[in-house]
Amino acid sequence: MDELTPSVLTLGVVHEVIRNLLRERISIRDFATVLETLIDHAPGTKDPEALTEYVRQRLCRTLCGQYQNEASKISTISLGPGLEQEIANSIHTTGNKSILALEPNYAQKIIDAIAETMKKTYSSSSNTVLLTSSAVRNHIRKLIENAIPYLPVLSYKEIAPGIQIESLGVVNLAEGGELNK
Predict the structure, then answer these.
(1) pTM
(2) How far is the C-alpha of 121 from the C-alpha of 134, rounded, in Å?
């Protein structure tokens, strides 16, 4: 672990990555993997958000284990392709940070649509996750964290090989931002 020095990655960045993981209730028991991932990706980025995503992908077995049911399946809802593309198009990068720039009313409609889809699927599974692309995962999590804090958000890259996905619903908004039923 001598490779992780302040010139490669500061303690503050490592601390921020750990905080990000714990905020999403991800176990850091496999701390060696966390550090190895940081060492592997530190030459390319110092951004704690990006590094957190790399660590999450490396911990995919642990993540999937948290959300699998007794049949070894993960129950999911996902964003419709059009909605996910709209969200991806609303991500703007400034310097080394990216932000989701959605009109507040539209953002609220997305949150409401996700919550409505969750309500419809709750009888099927109380352990549902929202599955998105890795490009929008963190932004979606931040968007819904206050309104739907109990809903984990995983990216497709965080699904370990061999894990079965059970789709319970798709979140779509019709033209004009209304929930598509």
Answers:
(1) 0.85
(2) 23
